[in-house]
Amino acid sequence: MRTRVDQISDRIYRISTCIPDIAPGGFTFNQFLVDAEEPLLYHTGMRRLFPLVKEAIERIMPVERLRWISFAHVEADECGAVNNFLAVAPHAQVVHGDLGCQVSLNDLCDRDPRPLADGEILDIGGATLQRRLIALPTPHVPHNWESHMLFEQETRTLFLGDLCTQFGDGPPVTDQAPFEAIIAAEDLFHQTSLGPAVPATYRRLADLEPVTLAVMHGSSYTGDCPTLLRMVADIYQERYGCGTPLLGQPLPEHKLVGSD
After folding, report:
1. Residue limits of the ODP domain (predicted)?
2. HSE-up of 1 (CA within 13 Å, CB side)?
């Protein structure tokens, strides 16, 4: 394994470790560091990756400067090393959606997390740098009830978590829309909770008009992000059967065997 560091947007760095045996061509686990007045790490990686990710951060800045730690949902590759980072960064605090804090993080984190409401803004830039992150709850998209994303307004970077997953160890960032690669990964992994919220969530994210998609597994994408997100929404609706509204529809009639 090797861990590399690449800048994908202004003062936003992708930290990437490729593990070769998980998927065809390998599978990347990516963290993103926003080097602002109050630096934020999005994803921690698994506990076993902590030494590699910590060393990679220190190529950019002292790890003790970390102020915020966030991630999409509670899984080992998203937040397995969260308490390791809290231990080495004395001023760091986890920031996540209200639901994630209530369900898991108030108990799991060694320091109390900061909850964010839908649409709440976290200003990490201070007086010298514009860096404002909007909180975006995305329950069950792609999976987990507490799923949550962040959108950085100044660079228009959308931190996606597991959305737009791709196989292989591709370039850190590409201007070639990875549409086919995203669908291939879904066909193999079946990672998405195929419910009615999926297409609507993709379209809500597209309406933000992001310029860069910070992808956890695979290459980040800079280009016509709204069109890519809407194309993926259409695939989930038309190919995988998501998007049919369920609320308000009558339940089908069922009869127990032996009942009158």
Report:
1. 28-218
2. 16
